[in-house]
Amino acid sequence: MKKGLIMLVIFLLVGCESIMTETPNVNDRVESRDGQESKAGSDTQSNPPSAVQTIRVTDEQVTRGNLVLVNKDHPLDQGAVPKDIVTLFENKDLMHGYVVLDNTIRLSRSVAEKFGDMVETAGEDGVNRFMISSGYRDEGEQEQLYREKGSDYALPPGYSEHNLGLSMDIGSTQQSIDRSPEGKWLKEHAWAHGFILRYPEDKTEITGIQYEPWHFRYVGQPHSMIMKELNLTLEEYLDYLKEQSSYTTTVEGKEYEIKYVPVTSKDMEIEIPAGSEYEISGNNIDGIIVTVLLNKDDEE
Predict the structure, then answer these.
(1) Residue ranges of the alpha helices (H) in 170-252?
(2) Inter-CA distances, 8 with 11, 12, 277, 287, Å
(3) How many CB atoms are closer than 10 A to CB 287?
(4) Which residue in 77, 55, 57, 78 sits closest to 284, CA to CA?
(5) 172 strand-pairing partners
(6) What confidence tens digit (pLDDT) does each residue in 171-216 have?
(7) 268 in helix, strand or coil?
(8) Helix spans in the chain (H)
(9) Chain segment 138-176, per-residue pLDDT in tens
(10) From 45's CA, which of 92, 93, 198, 270 has a CA 20 to 30 Å away?
(11) Residue 227 in contact with residue 196, Cβ under 8 Å?
(12) Is the pLDDT of residue 42 over 60?
């Protein structure tokens, strides 16, 4: 009987010791759910890195895109001219809601489509007397204009935005653009369609060009709206992005991240969030602007 009681006590003591040693110490290392080693009870946790995709750019990209700066200090690279330059008069599908001054006027097809969408919206507001008086000029045409008009009126070949194919002079068939309903509508609404008034009246010292209420340039969204909100010319906007390095903003319910990336080699890799829509444009100076739409999934 006594022998049995002794054996029972020994058994219970051994069992309790086994149960106690199975409880881990809070300082012991444990395996986390993502397979990374971490400290139990630690304030920091290992999180899996965000998914990214890598895009490759070359130094050639510095001179390409909707944001390239073309002025008296930064000449156009001929490779920057869009491949889709068309004669508007020969493409009737593009000419809805406006007329052209003559049948030789050319423009980037994609920009002409954006312009068509814009004048259609203006038509809904009862503004419908638009005219394009000048568009893309090749260097030969710019040279002829420069010789005929001189430096007070025209820029040398390669230094005019008209050599780029993204700019146009917009008029009205009723009266001068600065006094017409068309000019007033553009000044208020063009920004929402990706166009900017390139040479504002109060920025002549920055642009180096006199006030031209007729000259509009396509830069695309969200850039046009940001420039409007901050009251910046293209020169100022590119400087601003360079100073900010990375800039996040929401435009019309869409969240964007805009990064300035200096181009320091012939071939570079840039990481952006995986699956994101993005655009790349050079500044025609020293770097590129990467524009990423962050909330694409939310829209879907």
Answers:
(1) 181-189, 204-207, 223-230, 234-244
(2) 5, 6, 72, 82
(3) 19
(4) 77
(5) 130
(6) 999 999 999 999 999 999 999 999 999 999 999 999 999 999 999 9
(7) strand
(8) 2-21, 109-124, 139-149, 181-189, 204-207, 223-230, 234-244, 296-299
(9) 999 999 999 998 887 889 999 999 999 999 999 999 999
(10) 270
(11) yes
(12) no
Q: Which of 212, 235, 236, 255 is catalytic?
A: 212
Percent of the chain with pLDDT over 70: 82
Please confirm whether the linkage preceding 222 is cis (ω < 30° from 0): yes
AA identity, residue 89: F
212 given a catalytic annotation: yes
Q: Nearest-CA neighbor of 113 among 97, 129, 136?
A: 97
88: CB partners within 8 A, 6+ apart? 94, 95, 100, 105, 106, 107, 112, 132, 135
- Hey, is 106 helix, strand or coil? strand
Cα–Cα distances in Å, from 42 out to 26, 27, 49, 216? 9, 9, 19, 58
What is the dihedral angle through the alpha carbons of 200, 203, 204, 205, rounded to the nearest 10 degrees? -170
DSSP state of 125: T
**Listed residue (273, 278, 243, 274) closest to 260, CA to CA:** 243
User: Is there a contact between 250 and 238 (Cβ–Cβ < 8 Å)?
Assistant: no
Tokens of residue 7, six digits: 């054996």
